[in-house]
Amino acid sequence: MSLSLPVLLLFAFAAAPAGERGATPWRELGEDAREALLRSGAAEPLAARVVALSAHFLGTPYQASPLGEGEGVDPDPLFRDDAVDCLTFVEQTLALALSGRKEDVGAMLAALRYDGAIRYQDRNHLMEAQWLPANLRKGFLRDITREVGGEATRSVEKVLTRTTWTSLSSRALALPRERQVTGRYPLQLVPIAALRPRMERLPEGSILLVVREERPLKATRITHMGFVVRKGRRVFLRHAARNAYGRVVDEDLDTFLTRNARYTRWPVEGVAVFAPQRPALAPRVGVSP
After folding, report:
1. Model's pTM, two decimal places?
2. Is the pLDDT assigned to residue 3 strictly greater than 60?
3. Same domain, 158 and 272
4. Rounded CA Rg of the chain
């Protein structure tokens, strides 16, 4: 018998290093404390909840693709806080921030990660073609890239063809042919050089996504994401960093941009920015695989 996602959440809080801003790690919070944490700030602006709740993931180790469906193609847990990658850190934080009770977190997370049932083939695997369009349509996100970049904003696209799905990286997704989407998927971006003098326009709690050069054999151009946070007048990216840190950290945004601007093997063209928002219609609670 498989457990529902909300029930699995009660057992998912495993060990993680202490938070770097003093926030108690999730694993150290009892069920009553977690419930109180979700309820206490339920009426706060969503951006404030994103910043506050994401702090409880600081120090959590990086692990590629730590979440799955609990069975089948990807049997990894449906929720966990002992390991995250950049995407699951953002998804789980948003699910928590959008929930006023812990029993609602599962439905929120399922709505963010899937465009249908909780099945591997229905997961939003591709950022430009699936994750962003689905969550924009559902009302979880608003594209604010042009608000940040102004006249420096560029329109680009990700093109998926049958050839894209012949590459090793695309085949590694193990999607059935009918789920190998093709088409042209538009995206706005702000070049790194243009973002530097505009960093004050980045709203705290917004999601910053790294957009790389278009490669026909790559199924996505977006390779990283995290939350914008502020400490005084300084702007940071709170993200699950694989190579530089191996955990969730608050990294000075200018330092992060400098490092990304140096990549030559697969150059970074810029960033896209999205604001989390509360959907008009709440996801159904009790979604099951």
Report:
1. 0.90
2. no
3. yes
4. 18
pLDDT of residue 15: 32
CA dist 172 and 230 (Å) reads 37
Question: Are residues 69 and 186 both part of a single domain?
Answer: no
Say if CB 39 and CB 33 are below 8 A apart: no
Same domain (yes/no): 177, 264: yes
Where among 73, 89, 122 does a domain terminate? 122
| End-to-end alpha carbon distance in the chain | 12
- The rounded distance, in Å, linking the Cα atoms of 37 and 40 is 5
| Whole-number Cα distances in Å, 59 to 16, 49, 83, 250, 260 | 7, 19, 10, 9, 22
99 and 168 share one domain: no
pLDDT 10s digits, 229-269: 999 999 999 999 998 899 999 999 999 999 999 999 999 99
Residue 209 structural domain: 138-276
